[in-house]
Amino acid sequence: MRSILPSVLPIATFTACTFVVMVAQAQECGRPVDFAVAADSFVNDSRGADCGIVIQGADVLAITNFNILVFDRDGNVNLERSRVPLLFFAEFDLEFIADVFCVFDSISERWFMAALTGTGNLGMTVSTTEVFDLHTAERWHAFEWDPPNNCDYPSMSVSEDAVFVTYVRVGGGAGKAEILHIDKAELLDGGPPPDLNSFSISPISGQDDSYLRMIGCVREYEQINSGYGSFITDSHKSREGQTMNNMVRLYALNTAEDTLDHFDLTVPDYRSCPRSIPIPGNATLNHTSGHDFKWPIYRNGSLWTAHDIGVTGTDQCQVQWYEIKLNGWPVTDFDPTLEHSGLIEPPDSATSVFHPAIRADDEGNMAIAYNQSSSSQHPAIYRRIRKWYDDDGDLRAPLLLKQSAGSPSGQNERWADFSCMEEDPDYPGVMWSHLEWFEPTETRKTWLTRTDLNKSLTLDIEYECETCEPDEIARGNEVTLTVQGAAPGNLVRWY
């Protein structure tokens, strides 16, 4: 069947002359993926890609442990402006190790870049102009700290008055993490490294054998509460076993008073996700940081985040996502509430889905990208979306973005610790994702994809039929087809 239909109103009375079967659920139409390109490539390194992305002005920065690549929006890389992180940090006598995080602060119009340096140290560079220039050292201030305990898995966010960094405490006791806040004005001025103000975080009280890896720094698209930084963590039990939990903890750090509030939010049950993800060839991927909240965001009153959890009774991983209304917490008398949540479940009993990257736009439309693999499927990249008017917890059908042609050959090969997604600030509803994939020549690669949520449509079907099976339409029955999400004047085609 083929129809060519206008816009977003109820359309067409269906009087088919033959029997027709249609599935009455939201499906993606149009051209949901506008652009995709291989961003980075590296061979025989024990580190994963640890993908990052920043979009500012005409630049799309694809960031890994191995390269910071500057693309334009058509997918052309500017190699003269790109650079290897190792060489960039060496300009400031900093020994780059891994985990580059980059943020453009729209308030100060400056770039902030953090990374692991030395043995457990934290390094940071702050630009002196809004121009992103990796080849002129004079355009950056550089700092290095030896924070409490050695740090790993850092994340970063920037507020109106502070820069926040979270990390795992290595050597400070199992399952512990740290929150730092640093005066932003001192970083912008240069000079000696400003003081680190720190809070040590332990697993949620009362959760026996709980295990905490990392606190997610919340990226704020608009200010939540003046003078606060926001964070979220889960409290997994031991990775081994089937013990369940149903709580995540929200933190709010008051920088003026140097105090830390928290709120424990009840969520659907979850348990730890196994470290080892099956891939072909009787091999596995090392899923080291899977259950952490890596890139939570605050958008239009809601905190959006996702993490890997285990499938009960199996060794599989799946993804659980959340939309949390903060309701002005902690400066109001209202507590945060769970607005929506849902699962990305494996398609079969042999497959795992893992490493989610989630973003939402100002209207509440959401996109989430993730990896998927099994003993018969090389690691792949998929993406699913949710429109604001979809049913609670529902996601649209999965879309394959990139299928690896091979897998790492060894046991417990390190996979990327971070995947990422970002909204284009100049094109609302356009999301860019950056995840790792693989080629059979032992080459790790990353894949950059642009998705326009404005081009994702919904086809709703309403009909009455006493003799029809569910989701079937027969000749002579009146049917209303409604297309939502099309721009005015657009034509809609389906087959």
User: What share of residues are in beta strands?
Assistant: over 45%
Query: Residue share in helices?
Result: under 10%
Mind telling me the CATH superfamily name of the largest domain? Answer: YVTN repeat-like/Quinoprotein amine dehydrogenase
Oligomer kind: single chain
Distance between the termini: 5 Å
Report the radius of gyration as a whole number of Å: 23 Å
Number of separate domains:
2
State the main characteristics.
single chain, mainly beta, five-stranded mixed β-sheet, 2 domains
Would you give an account of this structure?
- The protein is mainly beta and about 500 residues long.
- The protein folds into 2 domains: about 1-30 and about 455-495, no CATH class; about 30-455, YVTN repeat-like/Quinoprotein amine dehydrogenase (Methylamine Dehydrogenase, Chain H, 7 Propeller).
- About 0% of the residues lie in helices and about 50% in strands.
- It contains 2 helices and 38 strands.
- The strands form 11 sheets. It has a 5-stranded mixed beta sheet, with no helix packed on it. A 4-stranded antiparallel beta sheet has the order 4-34-33-32, with no helix packed on it. It has a 4-stranded antiparallel beta sheet with strand order 8-9-10-11.
- A hairpin with a 2-residue loop joins strand 28 (about 365-375) and strand 29.
- The longest helix is centred in the first third of the chain and has 6 residues, at about 85-90.
- It is globular.
- The N and C termini lie close together (about 5 Å).
- The relative contact order is 0.17.
